[in-house]
Write a structure and sequence with these properties.
This protein is an alpha+beta fold. The chain has a single domain, classed as Aminopeptidase. It is about 40% helix and about 20% strand. The chain has 5 helices and 4 strands; from the N terminus they run ααβββαβαα. Strands 1-2-3-4 form a 4-stranded mixed β-sheet, with helices on both faces. Helix 1 crosses helix 2.
């Protein structure tokens, strides 16, 4: 399954672009992502695009859609919704429209499969790509519940105050 290994490698490099990750963290993360993606591919809940350089088939850009289960809401029954993830373009090939091409293809695929909306978590670097293609920024929040996660993120990110 060559394509899966390309996706794992590009996701690995995507995370390296955001922050320094230890070899052990990568090894564990890559292994888990490989299992996670393979299972969803078999279930038909994960589809990906790979752009290769024509002369040697070098993968230069990738992106994927995961059909994420969502809760029912007024006007929208429960079901699956496409979530764009793991977008990556090799630094030597950026600025050539490859990411835009993958996003357009994923949007077309989603429309053709009966979906009326998509979502993603955009990095600061990628926001302009999505905005140009009609994506809107939404409000999202989170909280770190695990002490281990808080420690990994480093000091100054979370403070605890004791009261008497």
């Amino acid at each position: 399954m060559r394509d899966l290994e390309v996706l794992v490698d590009h996701r690995h490099r995507m995370f390296d672009a955001f922050r320094k990750i230890s070899a052990l963290e990568h090894e564990l993360g890559d292994r888990e992502y490989r299992k996670w993606a393979r299972l969803r591919m078999k279930k038909g809940e994960f589809v990906a695009w790979i752009i290769e350089r024509s002369r040697d088939r070098l993968p230069v850009a990738t992106g994927a859609v995961w059909l994420l289960e969502h809760q029912p809401r007024p006007g929208r029954p429960a079901g699956k919704a496409p979530y764009l993830l793991s977008m990556y373009t090799d630094p030597n090939f950026r600025g050539r429209g490859f990411a835009s091409r993958i996003v357009r293809e994923s949007m077309m695929w989603s429309r053709q499969n009966g979906f009326s909306r998509m979502s993603l978590h955009a990095s600061k670097f990628g926001r302009s790509v999505y905005r140009k293609l009609g994506w809107e920024r939404t409000w999202e929040m989170r909280v770190v519940l695990s002490r281990r996660e808080a420690r990994r993120r480093g000091p100054g990110r979370r403070r605890t105050y004791k009261t008497k």
